[in-house]
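Appendix B, record 7
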Amino acid sequence: MNLEPGGKSDGVLAGPVLRHSAPDAIVLWLVTMERASFTVRIFQGEDLLLDRPLENSEITRLWVGTRAWLNLLTITPETALPQDTRLEYDLGLTADGSEVCKWIRTWAPHLCPEGRERPGFTLKSRLDRILHGSCRRPHHPSPDGLVRVDEELQKAKKLEDVPSLLLMTGDQVYADDVAGPMLHAIQCVIHQLGLYQEVLEGASLSHSKELTSVANAYYHRDELLPESEFNEDLTERFFGGVRKPVFTTANAGNHLISFAEVMAMYLLVWSPEPWACVTSAEPVDDPDELARYRKEQAAINEFRKSLPQAARAMANVPVYMIFDDHDVTDDWNLSALWETTAYEHPFSRRIIGNALLGYLLCQGWGNQPGNFGQLIEQCQRLFESSNGQHELDTAIQDDLIDQLFHFQHWHFSLPTSPRLVVLDTRTHRWRSEIRRSHPSGLMDWESLTDFQHEIMGEDAVVVVSPAPMFGVKLIEMIQRVFTFFGKPLLVDAENWMAHRGAASVLLNIFGHPRTPRHFVILSGDVHYSFAYDVRVRHKQNGPRVWQITSSGIKNEFPNALLEWLDRLNRWLFAPWSPLNWFTKRRRMWISPRLPEGREAGERLWNGAGIGDVRLDDEGAPTAIRQLDAGGGGTIFKQRAKDD
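Structure tokens (predicted):
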């Protein structure tokens, strides 16, 4: 692909990513270098089911840079597409002013499965196999779990082996933890594509263009905070007391700031194509920083090599996404105090808003496009406001960010069998009634009530909760202790049991007589994998609940520490232990499954990869696996002895 300055585009920067998929609508997300028209073909074997140009009503285009168009295509076939059979699709691009239509095999051959001419997918009538995972950190040394997704798609020959969908359950990008070489790549992409810049308020720099020229451009962005009385207090509260920046990750030295940086990040983690923009420069001089930069460069080089397979995975299975904190910033909305501190300053407010805008355009929008009409109209106004000046209108941008902060429908559900319900555990927080610095509940009373109404009367549901509803008791106890001493940020004290009100309402949902009979909970976030069988104590006809946690796609927990935590948890919270009666979930009977390949009694599995759950006709798991990114993995087997 030609990406030289002034060159003529002949390809696509990223995508297509296959998003919401149903017999009456197929959604594709992609970014092109020019404004383009599209022709779609859908095949069933040799039969051509659809072959026509897309109507204007099926295309939404956002001009996010002088050489970057974000496109969401909602393809609506005249006749419903068949289910439970492989379909293939092709997308023809015609650049404005051209009569040449180019097909995927020409501009993105890496998206075509081996031995096939085009990508494909299957519209499953049941959720019988689900792949799920979270936490994809590009510079982590582990392999990429999306490569394992691609391998599973390639070898699936029977219908029952074809995944129904891929659920990405949080931290698809790390806006708050960026390697030096990745930040350099981001700046190269911004420059080559002319991604729109912006005026910054309340910072020591006045414009996003200065982010590449200031002395603190790499590894020291926490020092770009404004020098004011308010912000000195802000700095003391987070930097001094917690040894973390305003954006409380310990790695905020390269925290993304502008919308252009966020947009470039998505392109670089989802596609091999934008890397053609990136030079081999090393933009740091300090010896220690240069050594760190080169170490990170080695990890980024490995990540980049596997991107064609990761992109192919996302083009060949329906993908649904929900945010967690790192998609925006670490500990996002952890407590009422965090919210007040972060949102009342214009600079931190803009940074959070830009990350949420990137999530809207690159993740949330594709889940259920019909929910985002007004926001997308405002996005169009924002990008059209540049008027060739390569700069976003400040007033429109701030107004859009306000709308994003008050948006109520990031969560979503699908009328699948069983029903899929994806929770927003970040923007409907139940603030602590005890102290503003204590962790908020992951969902407030109103959103939990809406969730209960959503699932009542269903025989079975699959629920996505980015953080596990039932986690490791010892770790939750440690988080509780740190919260008691006023330091919840030190241990990321975010779990369902950390807030009395939210925990009580959640547990009451499981005890309701009309709650689903089968209740599968898919989670991530914690960087290790486990599976629990859960029941309501003293209730014979209560629901069967499975807590299944897979994390991360490209991230891992420190192995030695995890082994000690696993061992201590078994000792301290054995079935006979009185400590169990001090936990909020004492009403629940919990039996951990044991992963094959671990030592006797060990319950936690540590290895980057992807979760794999198979469900029977009633929505109950028949197999719970963790597929390691580098091959192999484990199956979680039910214990004979209860815990």
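Remarks on this record: The first helix runs from residue 104 to 107. The mean pLDDT is 87.
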